[in-house]
Amino acid sequence: MNHRMKIVVLGSALLLGATAASAATASEEAPRQREAAALTGTAKLYRSAGDDITFSFDAHLAAKDNADPTRATGTFEFSHYLDGEGARAKAKVDCLVTGGKVAVVSGVITDSDLPGAEGKRVGITVHDVGRRDRLGYSWAATGNPVETKELPKCVGSAPFEKVRKGTGDFTVVPWRPDF
Question: Which tens digits make up the pLDDT trace of 41-82?
């Protein structure tokens, strides 16, 4: 290979490498498609009696599923203890609907130490108002998730409970359905 050919080959290799690097940088900088809706975060509820009540969410509706909130995925967990007594539960998300800063998520309990809770659907409503978020749950009127009978997907109660100051913050990504 002569000197001129080596320069052309080397120049082509450098050009290909630079093009590949530019493409990689462009793909890294390309905006990711926004998910259709989400509810994330952890916080404790305020109770004057000192109850330890925690809710955690990791619920998402993918952009490709924007038309069907029942295709939401993820989990949420909650617990309620007072003086060492109480229970906890984990649920698999089966629906997520958000509007502005309000989210309603439902799911079926997959793991719990509350007898009779596994297999029950529960729904929770969150109002994301910064560090003073609010929350409501489908068993507000019945006392616990076991007493709730055949709750439909995406049903929760008004967010009547307050998040305890300094314990966390929920984040709601608003749903934008195509109408």
Answer: 999 999 989 999 999 999 999 999 999 999 999 999 999 999
Contact 145, 87 (CB under 8 A): no
Contact at 8 Å (CB) between 68 and 178?
no
Can you list the residues of the chain whose pLDDT is less than 50? 3-24, 26-27
pTM of the predicted model as reported, rounded to 2 decimal places: 0.80
Tokens at 2, concatenated: 């002569």
Q: Amino acid letter at 55?
A: F
Element spanning 161, H or E: strand 161-162
Q: What is the Cα–Cα distance from 73 to 84, expressed in whole angstroms?
A: 32
Q: What is the DSSP string of the chain?
A: --HHHHHHHHHHHHHHHHHHHHHHHHHHHSPPPPPSEEEEEEEEBP-TT--EEEEEEEEEE-GGGTT-GGG-EEEEEEEEEETTEEEEEEEEEEEEEEETTEEEEEEEEEEESSTT-TT-EEEEEEE--GGG-EEEETTTTTSSGGG--SPPTT------EEBPTTS-EEEEEPP----
